[in-house]
Write a structure and sequence with these properties.
alpha+beta; single chain; 2 domains; 8 helices; 14 strands; globular; 265 residues
């Protein structure tokens, strides 16, 4: 079957394993069904901004044209650094957008994608955010009324915990299985400033996430449509927002949002 369209982040549903869906044109594909099959994805040499739709020669911030990159609320500094959010002060590139994205309850969490890391996401994005990062285990540690406050907690904890995932280890399944998340949550509460500790919550559920992967590669090489036209081969798994092909070639779907492609399977 042949389908053309612009790439978007894969949708996911928590299950055992996670269910993944890719939307191309008007087609919704259950990507799990393509695992262990030969798949070809070709770049059609066009990129369209995922916000305004205009054609752009280069993608910024995973899918935006340069003007949108400079002005869109989705690309503001606080997306990567929540402590810089000013929506609670009435300052935003788009206050209506911020009301739905910054001025909502946020979760500070600990997760193990490769090693232990701390992160922030909207409450409504749990567990989607964890799945997108390829987390194998995750626990909520604090809940705040806005993005800014969650960012302050994260900044406190980044002095003691990593805030990045080693994507190569995540995709080769070299993950930390020794760290006890509940123990680390209790440790984190002792490490934050007293005025922030009040946001810690009693929900101690640890979510274990399994992914549709039939075999993990020993080594991985990242595929880039800016350098190569086509990726093809047997799809052996999906983890995070990555398609894993036989031989260790991996495609980051999220990185290529807005790229016009043709998928054959």
């Amino acid at each position: 079957m042949k389908i053309q369209g612009a790439l978007r982040k894969m949708k996911s549903e928590i299950n055992d394993p996670v269910n993944y869906f890719l939307h191309l044109s008007n087609e919704k594909m259950h990507m799990n069904e393509l695992i262990d099959k030969n798949v070809s994805i070709s770049f059609l040499n066009k990129i369209h901004c995922i916000r305004c739709g205009r054609e752009t020669k280069k993608s910024f911030h995973q899918g935006y044209c340069y003007p949108c990159f400079r002005t869109a609320p989705e690309t503001d500094d606080c997306i990567l650094r929540p402590e810089m959010c000013r929506a609670h002060e009435g300052i935003s590139r788009d206050m209506e957008w911020s009301k739905d994205h910054c001025l909502k309850d946020h979760i500070v969490y600990l997760a193990i994608s490769s090693g232990l890391k701390v992160g922030v996401t909207r409450l409504a994005q749990v567990p989607t955010r964890w799945i997108d990062q390829g987390a194998s285990y995750a626990i909520k540690i604090a809940q705040s009324p806005n993005r800014y406050t969650a960012g302050l907690i994260e900044v406190n904890l980044k002095k003691h915990f990593a805030d990045k995932t080693n994507w190569r280890n995540m995709l080769t399944n070299k993950i930390d299985t020794e760290t006890q998340l509940l123990e680390q949550k209790n440790k984190a509460k002792e490490l934050v400033k007293k005025e922030l500790a009040k946001y810690f919550i009693d929900d101690d559920e640890i979510l274990e996430i399994n992914y549709p992967v039939i075999s993990f590669p020993e080594k991985v090489n990242s595929f880039n449509f800016d350098k190569e036209q086509k990726i093809e081969g047997k799809l052996v798994g999906i983890k995070g927002q990555y398609l894993i092909f036989e031989g260790g070639i991996v495609l980051n779907i999220r990185k290529h949002k807005g790229y016009q492609v043709e998928l054959i399977y």
